[in-house]
Amino acid sequence: MNKKIKRPSWDEYFMEIAKLVATRSTCLRRQVGAVIVKDRHILSTGYNGTPKGITHCEIVGCLREKLKVPSGERHELCRGLHAEQNALLQAALYGISLREATLYCTNQPCIICAKMLINAGIREIVILDGYPDPMAEEMLKEAKVKVRGIK
Questions:
Q1: Radius of gyration of the CA atoms of the chain, in A
Q2: Cα–Cα nearest to 36, from 52, 9, 18, 13
Q3: Which of 50, 72, 138, 148 fits a disulfide with 54 by CB distance 3.0 to 4.6 angstroms?
Q4: DSSP state letters, 59-88
Q5: Which residues are registered as beta bridge partners of 45?
Q6: pLDDT tens digit string along 20-30?
Q7: How far apart, in Å, are the Cα atoms of 135 and each of 96, 117, 118?
Q8: Which backbone phi and psi does 45 adopt, to 5 degrees?
């Protein structure tokens, strides 16, 4: 008897991994996960949170909440790094080229992350949810980085 197994598509597979990575987040406002893939192989992962050795926001509180900073603004007023930034830094730490790779991320990158992803050579970004940053969308389009959403 041949039983057909329901396997996820590659997009579903990598996005599910990004969602799992997001569960490691130390951010009190939003949990984001990122997975960078090339030729169907995971090169790097990252989640948003404080740098190594820095006290987590759940202990010291969220500066952005205290200052009532709206989402998508004043990124420098945060103790943490974005998931995309951590994925890029992990690849750099281990000498992994990301040229022509695809980023799977639970949220659309902000403008700061978009600029980093462009310079790292990321060619495609697959997102689960949007993010209020039209400048990032414009710059990714100009750089010919394909951005597409999945459910």
A1: 16
A2: 18
A3: 50
A4: HH--HHHHTTPPTTS-TTS-SSB-HHHHHH
A5: 35
A6: 999 999 999 89
A7: 28, 14, 13
A8: -135, 160
Sequence-distant (6+) residues with CB within 8 A of 68 are none
How far CA 39 is from CA of 43, 60, 98, 100, 148, in Å, comes to 10, 41, 11, 10, 18
Q: Which of 84, 100, 137, 142 is catalytic?
A: 84
Give the residue ranges of the chain where pLDDT is below 50: none
58-69 b/e with 16+ CB inside 10 Å = b? eeeebebeeeeb
Are the CB atoms for 45 and 21 separated by under 8 Å? Answer: yes
Q: For the chain, what is the total number of helices (H) and then of strands (E)?
A: 6, 5
Which pair of structure tokens corresponds to residue 22? 């997001």
Q: Is 84 a catalytic residue?
A: yes
Which pLDDT score is estimated for 4?
87
C-alpha span between 96 and 43 (Å, rounded): 7
Sheet of 41-47: strand order equals 41-47, 33-38, 102-107, 124-129, 146-149
